[in-house]
Amino acid sequence: MKKILLTLLMGLLAFSLAACNDDEEKEKKTATSEKTTEESTEEKATEEQTAADAEEMQKKLEAQKVKDDSVVAIVNSQEIKGSEYNEALSISQTQFQQMGQDPTTDETAKQLKDYTLESLVGQTLLMQEIDKKGYKATEEAINKDLDTIKAQYENDEAFEKALKDTNLSLEELKSQIADKVRYSQYVEKDLKVEEVKEEELKEYYDSMVSSVAEGQETPKYEDVKETLKVQLEQQKTQEKLGAKVEELRKDAKIELKI
Hints:
By secondary structure, this protein is mostly helical. It folds into three domains: 1-46; 62-134 and 193-258, Orthogonal Bundle (Triger factor/SurA peptide-binding fold), CATH 1.10.4030; 138-181, no CATH class. It has nine helices and three strands.
């Protein structure tokens, strides 16, 4: 809105200056003013349409959600509530949008539902396995991660406001951190993800270089080595997790409710 207001003021200024000049100059300045006003009107209309489109999109995205207290799935007698589904669905919707897909079409909406449910079921199976293994998160480990999160905020007031804005209590946050700590322990000790080898890194780098468009600068191997290593480690971990979830599914009782 500030940009539109500034444009309108510039138009008025041009018109006022024109009044102080001779007839020829006045005509010229008035034409400039009218053009500026017309452009600002078009810009305002575009912004209003964009805002309307965004609002309509949000309504369609909200319509895909379910009641918070409903049950969307049961995994080995453990219920997955609508509130969990809705939170995961919002993340899925954002991911699909970032990939350039319209999450509101019938086909994509179904993909979103299936993708979100499968993700929640897989997550539940893994956490059930982690519980069976007996992994625990110490207060020290939880507080360490909590301090890292708090450090991202200017002060305690800003941190508490962020919690309030996300409808999350401190205890709920600490519970999520505890799950993250236990998950990390499980990945490290049970999945035993193979270490990324130097030859794998170079092969990955070569494939990346080959996809760089002509004329674009190619980064040096040493400059991106650590980043590529993290990416490959994540890929290997995801592959292991995927295989583990499929293994757990074989003996699991899973009932989808939506």
